């Protein structure tokens, strides 16, 4: 049974839930892990995660079904992406079995914190892999910690399915052959100042352009971008420096196979926004957040409306969220039932 909480008023904030999973990689192997109630990590001051950013993370959610059970959405994809991040940062991979077991144990142990069906809330799960131990040279850490913790969350951008506005940043979040395509803390550190500047101007967040030519949309600091054209095409940027969003790939599949849209992964030029009738940001935390308008230099471009969600975005949202909460049949292997 769920805890008593103001489920409808949840934002995207840290809440300490009772249990997290912690496992150490030592002497060249993953040691036995366990659930723990301690939310503090004690690590060496010389940990590579602190000095050289040798760390990566994931984000996924657990969804309360109408029958009271709990669904995970495509957790195997998060496991795969974590291991791509680990490989690029020269860290040991976390076996899929260990990843899924840790996630499942944490959700089960904190089941009372999975928000009720219909509240709009979900349980956000954060797997984290960090280099620890004594190492001051720029080298891979001698030891690693993998932890998974979770908390109930509401909408990431205020308003949820209500459109909000974004501004194009003059900064880059990732280099062309750098780490944009993996989920590492450094990308997010680089996005903090641009994000703050955008919020100070009353935008939800910024949109980054491709770091090589600054002519094409890459993504939002915390979500991928998509647009719907007048010809009913679902278009999303293709670039080696954006995070391969699991939500985005799910939407590409659903747009094509369930909504009958043509789908395109390609260039999205910032001076050609007129081709879109609707636009949105998509991700685990963002779900689908409609984009009202985009400020680019002195021009403010409105897509469908600054106050109302467009019809195609609404259909995509209903399909995706319906699948996640177990109301609509999922494509094979998209849902892992925790109970
Ligand atoms: N892009 C960035 C930079 C992100 O942080 C996220 C969030 O994980 C996404 C895109 C969306 O990815 P996903 O749909 O896998 O959550
Ligand atoms: C997610 O959607 O899981 C993210 O990681 C985005 C943000 C909270 C960093």
Automatic annotation (TrEMBL):
Signal peptide: none annotated. Its cofactor is pyridoxal 5'-phosphate. InterPro entries: Aminotrans_IV, Aminotrans_IV_CS, Aminotransferase-like, B_amino_transII, BCAT-like_C, BCAT-like_N, BCAT_family. It holds the Pfam family Aminotran_4. Keywords: Amino-acid biosynthesis, Aminotransferase, Branched-chain amino acid biosynthesis, Pyridoxal phosphate, Transferase. It catalyses: L-leucine + 2-oxoglutarate = 4-methyl-2-oxopentanoate + L-glutamate; L-isoleucine + 2-oxoglutarate = (S)-3-methyl-2-oxopentanoate + L-glutamate; L-valine + 2-oxoglutarate = 3-methyl-2-oxobutanoate + L-glutamate. One of its GO terms (molecular function) is branched-chain-amino-acid transaminase activity. Pathway: Amino-acid biosynthesis; L-isoleucine biosynthesis; L-isoleucine from 2-oxobutanoate: step 4/4; Amino-acid biosynthesis; L-valine biosynthesis; L-valine from pyruvate: step 4/4; Amino-acid biosynthesis; L-leucine biosynthesis; L-leucine from 3-methyl-2-oxobutanoate: step 4/4. The keyword Metal-binding does not apply. It comes from the Bacteria. Its EC number is 2.6.1.42. NCBIfam families: ilvE_II (TIGR01123), PRK13357.1 (NF009897). Belongs to the class-IV pyridoxal-phosphate-dependent aminotransferase family. This is Branched-chain-amino-acid aminotransferase.
């Amino acid at each position: 049974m769920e805890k008593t909480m103001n489920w409808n008023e949840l934002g995207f904030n840290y809440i300490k839930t009772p249990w997290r999973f912690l496992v150490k990689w030592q002497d060249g192997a993953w040691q036995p892990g366990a659930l723990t109630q301690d939310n503090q990590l004690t690590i060496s001051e010389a940990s590579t995660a602190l000095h050289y950013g040798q760390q990566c993370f994931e984000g996924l959610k657990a969804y309360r079904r109408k029958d009271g059970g709990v669904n995970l959405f495509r957790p195997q994809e998060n496991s795969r992406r974590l291991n791509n991040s680990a490989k690029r940062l020269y860290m040991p991979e976390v076996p899929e079995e260990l990843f899924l077991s840790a996630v499942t144990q944490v959700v089960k142990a904190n089941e009372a914190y999975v928000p009720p069906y219909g509240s709009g809330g979900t349980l956000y799960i954060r797997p984290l892999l960090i280099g620890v131990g004594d190492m001051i040279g720029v080298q891979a850490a001698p030891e690693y910690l993998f932890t998974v913790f979770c908390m109930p969350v509401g909408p990431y951008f205020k308003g949820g399915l209500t459109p909000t506005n974004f501004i194009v940043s003059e900064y880059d979040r990732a280099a062309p052959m750098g780490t944009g395509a993996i989920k590492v803390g450094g990308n997010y550190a680089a996005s903090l100042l641009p994000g703050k500047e955008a919020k100070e101007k009353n935008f939800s967040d910024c949109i980054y352009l491709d770091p090589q030519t600054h002519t094409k949309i890459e993504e939002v600091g915390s979500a991928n971008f998509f647009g719907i054209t007048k010809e009913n095409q679902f278009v999303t940027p293709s670039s080696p420096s954006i995070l391969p969003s699991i939500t985005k790939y799910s939407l590409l599949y659903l747009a094509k196979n369930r909504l009958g849209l043509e789908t395109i992964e390609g260039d999205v030029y910032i001076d050609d926004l007129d081709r879109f009738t609707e636009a949105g940001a998509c991700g685990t935390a963002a779900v689908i957040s409609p984009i009202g308008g985009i400020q680019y230099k002195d021009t403010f471009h409105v897509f469908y409306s600054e106050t109302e969600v467009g019809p195609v975005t609404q259909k995509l949202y209903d399909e995706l969220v319906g699948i996640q909460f177990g109301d609509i049949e999922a494509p094979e292997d998209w849902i892992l039932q925790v109970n």
